[in-house]
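To illustrate the input format used throughout this study, we show a single complete record. The first block contains the structure-token representation of the backbone; no residue identities are included at this stage. The design step must infer an amino acid for every position from geometry alone.
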């Protein structure tokens, strides 16, 4: 009897560095890291060229690994509007790459990703990286220098954990689940 397999591509979008990670889930919880890395974009002066490089790398990862789903970290809300705009464009280009290959996309807030991997939504990038290293039993010598790569794996892990949670299996989560489970607490 063959165990079911699911491949998840995780993307941590950015216009300076885009982290990515691909995991394979066999059965309910057997995890294997397929690839992780970072696309360095600071050498490209033109923002449009950076977006093209993000698109091309995402398409290459999708075509190479044939993931079943892609999970992307949502932009966080900051004070610098220009940075937010650029980050949103990077995320949009990653979405376009997935859509060009008919790939399902899920989006997760940074705090959600950190909490699902480390247990704390306020975890540092170093704590996320250490947990990724522990989960996949990666030797220190094989760990990437850049934390964006482990962030990409963390996004994929978050998606796996969300799909494995009882709330996701029931098809309700968030406010809808709260209202359904607590109708007496809702006022008209």
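Output of the design step:
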């Amino acid at each position: 009897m063959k165990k079911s397999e699911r491949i998840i591509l995780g993307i941590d979008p950015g216009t300076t560095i885009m982290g990515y990670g691909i995991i394979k889930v066999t059965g309910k919880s057997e995890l294997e890291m397929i690839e992780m890395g970072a696309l360095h974009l600071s050498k490209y002066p033109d923002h449009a060229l950076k977006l093209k490089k993000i698109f091309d790398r995402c398409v290459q990862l999708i075509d190479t690994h044939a993931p079943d789903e892609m999970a992307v970290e949502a932009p966080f809300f900051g004070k610098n509007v220009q940075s937010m705009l650029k980050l949103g464009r990077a995320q949009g280009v990653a979405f376009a790459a997935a859509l060009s290959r008919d790939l399902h996309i899920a989006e997760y807030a940074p705090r959600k990703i950190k909490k699902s991997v480390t247990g704390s939504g306020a975890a540092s990038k170093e704590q996320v990286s250490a947990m990724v290293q522990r989960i996949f039993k990666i030797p220190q010598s094989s760990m990437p220098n850049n934390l964006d790569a482990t962030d990409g794996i963390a996004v994929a892990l978050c998606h796996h954990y969300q799909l494995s949670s009882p709330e996701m299996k029931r098809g309700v989560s968030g406010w809808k689940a709260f209202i359904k489970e607590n109708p007496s607490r809702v006022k008209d």
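Structural context for interpreting the output: The first helix runs from residue 47 to 65. Residues 20 and 152 are 4 Å apart (CA to CA).
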